[in-house]
Every structure is written in structure tokens, then in C-alpha cells.
Write a structure and sequence with these properties.
With about 80 residues, this protein is mainly beta. It is built from no helices and seven strands. The strands form two sheets. It has a five-stranded antiparallel beta sheet, with no helix packed on it. Strands 6-7 form a two-stranded antiparallel ribbon.
């Protein structure tokens, strides 16, 4: 899955507007992304435009009690 920070979003100095980011996991619907400092942080999905919504084939997805998504590569 590949996303890009929306152009009108402020408050995320560790992300660049024109940079595509690979989502390395999803926790409670938030995207885990390696930011510009190379650190894996969770970000709300509404601040991103989805460029490619395909999940890697090795991801395992589970839903929480409230329907929230958790997806990560199979261990």
C-alpha cells in the first residue's frame, strides 16, 4: 500500500508533501509508515491520499472488536 500526504495538511513536519510512503502496517486503522527520519510511526489515514491500495500478499489482516483493522506481514 502506498500513500502520499495530502497537500493541505499541516502539523506533520516529519513527512514530505510530494513523497510517496509505503505503509508497513495498519494498527487500529492508523497507518504505520517510516517517516522522513526513518522512524516507524502511526499516522491517521485521513491525512493521506492513497496512491496504491493493494496490500502485499503476505499481509495478515484481523479486525478488532469495534471493526478496526490490524494488518501486518505474516511472521
Amino acid at each position: 500500500m502506498i500513500v502520499k500526504l495530502k497537500s493541505n495538511i499541516l502539523g506533520y513536519p516529519d513527512l514530505s508533501e510530494d513523497q510517496p510512503y509505503f505503509v508497513i502496517g495498519i494498527e487500529a486503522d492508523d497507518y504505520r509508515i517510516l517517516n522522513d527520519d526513518g522512524k516507524p510511526y502511526l499516522y491517521p489515514p485521513e491525512v493521506f491520499e492513497v496512491i496504491d491500495s493493494r496490500h502485499p500478499p503476505d499481509w495478515v489482516t484481523e479486525l478488532g472488536d469495534d471493526g478496526e483493522q490490524y494488518s501486518y506481514p505474516r511472521h
